[in-house]
């Protein structure tokens, strides 16, 4: 089973993902962008480059996803593991659709979803850590172009579109709560997901 954690920068995904490793010690914990491949390194260069072309950046993130799928996610699922990924395809649908909002693409989110549909493996469930853009930008330190409140407001609206279109896949958690309460809510949600599976 593939469970993903999604949310704005600073929503607390990584904090939760690290804490879950103590609870679900048999699960495979992974993340996007990947942190152990040259594709991930290329993505990180694009994140740090204020002049990076948004369409080229989409394809770098998507290349990293293709490598992540073939090297980590599909083999782990084939062995029957629970896979928990800190960010996954919804990050592209939300972030790159916002970056490409004023591009020549008529419907950026649909375009990005179409690219993924041809080869990707959708998550079974997605835990969405919901936080307002101002809190997200403040917590993340607004150190890169993706961490600005105005941009994150667009990203958040895109996440809402995704949740509206597939409400059964998403579990929304209020991520403005203290960290221990967020973790407790995620653990409860995950236990219910695994029970129902
Ligand atoms: N629920 C929370 N309340 C307040 N601060 C938090 C909470 N969760 C995480 N933080 C802090 O916010 C910052 C970003 O958290 P992080 O887990 O890295 O978020 P993300 O991976 O979603 O960007 C860190 O300094 C972390 O300690
Ligand atoms: C996976 C992914 C991340 N991103 C962005 C979100 C973050 O600003 C940045 C790095 O992701 P990440 O390292 O997960 O940052 P954080 O822990 O702060 O949430 O890349 C995209 O724009 N598209 C994607 O497909």
Task: Describe the overall structure.
The protein is built from eight helices and five strands, in the order βαβααβααβααβα. The longest helix has 25 residues. It has one domain: P-loop containing nucleotide triphosphate hydrolases (Rossmann fold). The chain is globular. It has a five-stranded parallel beta sheet, with helices on both faces. The mean pLDDT is 96. Helix 2 packs antiparallel against helix 3 and helix 4 packs antiparallel against helix 5. It is α/β, with parallel strands linked by helices and 197 residues long.
Summarize the structure in short.
Belongs to the thymidylate kinase family. The chain is of the alpha/beta class and 197 residues long. It has helices at 13-23, 38-48, 54-78, 89-99, 108-117, 133-140, 149-165, 179-196, and strands spanning 2-7, 28-31, 83-86, 125-130, 170-174.
Uncertain runs: none
Main β-sheet: number of strands, strand sense, barrel status? 5 strands, parallel
State the helix count: 8
Number of domains: 1
Distinct small molecules: adenosine-5'-diphosphate, thymidine-5'-diphosphate
Q: Assign the CATH class.
A: Alpha Beta
The CATH topology assignment is Rossmann fold
Average the pLDDT over all residues and give the rounded result.
96
Rg over CA atoms: 16 Å
CATH architecture: 3-Layer(aba) Sandwich
Order of helices and strands: EHEHHEHHEHHEH
Strand order of the largest sheet: 2-3-1-4-5
Helix percentage range: 55-70%
Number of strands: 5
Pfam family, one: Thymidylate_kin
Keywords: ATP-binding, Kinase, Nucleotide biosynthesis, Nucleotide-binding, Transferase
Catalytic activity: dTMP + ATP = dTDP + ADP
Protein name: Probable thymidylate kinase
């Amino acid at each position: 089973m593939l469970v993903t954690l999604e949310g704005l920068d600073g929503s607390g995904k990584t904090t939760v993902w690290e804490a879950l490793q103590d609870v679900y010690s048999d699960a495979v914990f992974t993340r996007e962008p990947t942190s152990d491949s040259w594709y991930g390194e290329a993505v990180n260069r694009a994140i740090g480059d204020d002049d990076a072309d948004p369409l080229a950046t989409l394809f770098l993130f998507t290349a990293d996803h293709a490598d992540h799928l073939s090297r980590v996610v599909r083999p782990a699922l084939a062995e029957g593991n629970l896979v928990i990924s800190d960010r996954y395809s919804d990050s592209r649908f939300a972030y790159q659709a916002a970056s490409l909002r004023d591009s020549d693409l008529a419907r950026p989110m649909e375009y990005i979803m179409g690219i993924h549909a041809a080869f990707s493996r959708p998550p079974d469930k997605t835990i969405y850590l919901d936080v307002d853009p101002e809190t997200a930008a403040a917590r993340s330190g607004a150190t890169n172009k993706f961490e600005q409140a105005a941009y994150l407001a667009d990203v958040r609206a895109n996440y809402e579109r995704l949740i509206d279109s597939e409400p059964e896949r998403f579990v929304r958690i209020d991520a403005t709560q203290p960290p221990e309460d967020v973790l407790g809510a995620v653990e409860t949600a995950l236990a219910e997901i695994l029970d129902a599976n």
